[in-house]
Structures are given as C-alpha cells and as structure tokens.
Amino acid sequence: MADVTPSQATPVATRCARCQSALSESDRVTAEDRVFCRTCYDILKLQLRSSVTSMSQDVNYPMAVVGAVLGGTVGALAWWGVTVLTKIGFGLVAVVIGVLVGHGALRFAGGKRSVGLQAIAVVVGALSFLVAAYLVNMTFINEVLAQRGETWRVTFPPMGLGMFYKVLAANFGIMKVVFLGVIVYEAWFIPRPIKLVKS
After folding, report:
1. pTM of the full structure
2. Chain centre to alpha carbon of residue 157
3. Residue 190 and residue 116: Cα distance in Å, rounded?
C-alpha cells in the first residue's frame, strides 16, 4: 500500500459554524474565530441588531429612578459611614456613588440601556454626592461645635437651602470637583446604549 503524501490528501472543507454547510472561498465570512456562510452571517447580524435595539425600547423609567435613588442612598451612606467611623473624609469612597447609581438604574430597568437612563443616573449621582458631602461636612462641623462647648448642631435635613449651601461650601475644593466628575462619568457610562460597529 502506497503512502499518501500531503499533496495527495483530500482537503477538508471549511464549514459554516451555524448551518454546517461546506463553504467556498467566495461564500465565507470570518467573524472573530468562526467562519460563516454569507446567509448565516447576515441572519446573525440582523438578530444582533434587533437585540441591541430592543435594549433601548420599553424602558421602565420609574423603576430605573428607584434603582438609581437606592444606589445613590447606599453610596452616600457608605461614604458618610466611613467618615463617621474613621473620622477622616475619604473622598475616594465617594466614587462608589456613581457606580451604584449607574448599576441601580440599569438593573432596575431590567438591563435596558438608553440616553434617558444615563440622564437619570447623572442627576441622581450628582444629587447623591451633594447630600453625602453635606453629611460628611456636617459631621466635622458638629465635632468642632462639640469641642467648643456649643449647644447647637448642624442638622439633617438642613433647615433651608442657605444652610445646605454653607455647610456644603465649607471645604468644597478641587478634589471634590474631581470626585463629582468621576461620579458623573460612571453614572453616564454604565447605562449607556450599546453601539454596533457598522460592517
């Protein structure tokens, strides 16, 4: 029996990863590590586009607001809690507010993504940061008042917008602006709509 050399071996036909039909050179489309026939590739592309489009339709905005507010509340309380426990205002902990708000909006909206969700998350994230910064400053101001023997305390909720502004502005420096920027970015980025590259 004669040995078969590589040049005499029967070539193995490349098959479509979806329908398993044999592919000719002109009817093959490579996507990542798989090869498809043109028909299957077009079907998969259409299904993917439909799926991505449906992610931005029928968004439950009221539930998204609930999720964002819950995330913002947990994040604000986390930052304030760390401050109360350590007596140090770790601003970096505030960044968690943006992450929790973004994921809260995304999860409570059923995994949907839209520009509307981004707007909700940004507004709730910024407001949560301002409330958390007020709580942190309130804690430090009340400690100073207690050390001086003063009987009055800064309260939460504040007695008015004037008090809220004064307490918030007590040490609102460049780092607070940076942390606010990071929070807004995270809140905007997490529920963003998915964009497909046109091919």
Report:
1. 0.76
2. 29
3. 12
Of 47-56, 68-77, 156-165, 170-179, least confident by mean pLDDT is 47-56
Among 114, 112, 131, smallest CA distance to 69 is for: 131
How far is it, in rounded angstroms, from Cα 2 to Cα 104? 70
Structure tokens at 45: 């592309």
Residue-level pLDDT at 47: 75
Q: How many CA atoms lie within 13 A of 125 on its CB side?
A: 31
For 66, counting Cβ atoms within 10 Å of its Cβ (0-12 exposed, 13-18 middle, 19+ buried), the class is middle
Q: Decide if pLDDT at 125 tops 90.
A: yes
Contact between residue 69 and residue 107 where contact means Cβ atoms under 8 Å apart:
no
Nearest to 107 by CA among 194, 196, 193, 190: 190
Mean pLDDT to the nearest integer, 116-136:
95
The one-letter code for the residue type at 54 is S
